[in-house]
Amino acid sequence: MKGNKVAIITGAGGGIGRAIALRLAKDGFTVALNDVNEEAVQLVSAEITSIGQESLTIPGDISDREQVFQMVDKVVERFGRLDAMVANAGIVQVKPFIEITEEDMEKIFRINVFGTLFCMQAAAKVMMKQKSGKIITASSTSGKRGVEFLSHYAATKFSVIGMTQTAAKELARYGITVNAYCPGVVGTKMWEEIDQKMSEYLNVPLGETFKNRVDNIPLGRVEEPEDVANLLSFLASDDANYMTGQAIMIDGGIVFS
């Protein structure tokens, strides 16, 4: 497996991260899987083993800078290179903006923004020496326009796009591309949490917010994690070598509807 391209996927224990890890493994990547949930990430590793690919599990917290840099060091020590960093891990919080506390902001920014930055920095240090690599970050449709009850989440995702665009300019001279992906309403546990909280704030039945959002998707169905993984397959491939600094919508048409 030493000749394979190598990718790190954070938040790989479920949802979008799991789908990305499986897709890149099918594409021939050796994948390193990171998540705070060690049991979940081990299950994903077993799935990858079952399709004949190699993986490395590195449980850990991306909001801890030292852990992120150690993770990248372990991957490079084991496989000799790093071709793609997928900074996918993140959390959501649902609250009216007027109720957001300092602690809320510190927690969500620590994971969604600081954690993404640490992943970008650690990967860039390796990739600058290689003169190649792809850094891929997780934004959202909420990083393009604000959504009620998601103001601080949106703030983190706008921030990710800003960091992505800036890093793309700084790293281009080293042959490194930096792009973000922006999912919409994806059928994962994160949207279950959003739906539950919004049902409380809007005083509507559980599931109604989710249904309304899906009903407004022009393509007429909920987004699956595999839809996002398909885009990641392209962004991590040589076919995307001339794309950088982009925040690509993968949302079934929500933003323009």
Topology, pairings included?
Layout: E1 6-10, H1 15-26, E2 30-34, H2 38-50, E3 55-57, H3 65-79, E4 84-87, H4 102-130, E5 133-138, H5 151-171, E6 176-183, H6 189-202, H7 208-215, H8 225-235, E7 247-250
Parallel strand pairs: 1-2, 1-4, 2-3, 4-5, 5-6, 6-7
Structural description of this entry:
The chain is built from 8 helices and 7 strands. It starts with 5 loop residues before the first strand and ends in a 7-residue tail after the last strand. Helix 1 runs parallel beside helix 2 (38-50), helix 3 (65-79) runs parallel beside helix 4 and helix 4 (102-130) packs parallel to helix 5. Strands 3-2-1-4-5-6-7 form a 7-stranded parallel β-sheet, with helices on both faces. With 257 residues, the protein is an alpha/beta fold. It has a single domain (6-184, 224-250), classed as Rossmann fold, CATH 3.40.50.720. The longest helix has 29 residues, at 102-130. The chain has helices spanning 15-26, 38-50, 65-79, 102-130, 151-171, 189-202, 208-215, 225-235; strands at 6-10, 30-34, 55-57, 84-87, 133-138, 176-183, 247-250. Helix 2 (38-50) links the parallel strand 2 and strand 3 (55-57).
